[in-house]
Amino acid sequence: MDRALERGEYPVIKFILPAGIPHWVVVVGKDGYEYLVQDPLVASAKPVPLSIRASGIYSVRVVRRNA
Question: What's 17's domain CATH number?
């Protein structure tokens, strides 16, 4: 995910919500060791730390720009 962010790409990650429902968010940056995500279920215009949304990552996809 670090390399994708460095290249200007967008990692999209899947984690499991407490009710057992899969959920996807976009990783938009990093602050130290903490990934910052944009989550449509969180009413915040600012990215939130991944650690407050998930305890584990189940899948990663990367959205790349065409040159």
Answer: 2.30.30
Statement: the pTM of the whole predicted model exceeds 0.85: yes
Two structure tokens written together for 61: 């996809």
Strand order in the sheet with 59-63: 48-49, 34-38, 22-31, 10-16, 59-63
**Domain count of the chain?**
1
Closest to 41 (Cα-Cα) out of 19, 8, 10: 19
In 3D space, the residue among 39, 30, 31 whose CA is nearest the CA of residue 3 turns out to be 30
Q: What backbone torsions phi and psi does residue 6 show, to the nearest 5 degrees? A: -60, -35
In whole angstroms, what is the distance from residue 14 CA to residue 22 CA?
A: 7
44-60 residue pLDDT tens: 889 999 999 998 999 99
Structure tokens at 46: 């600012």
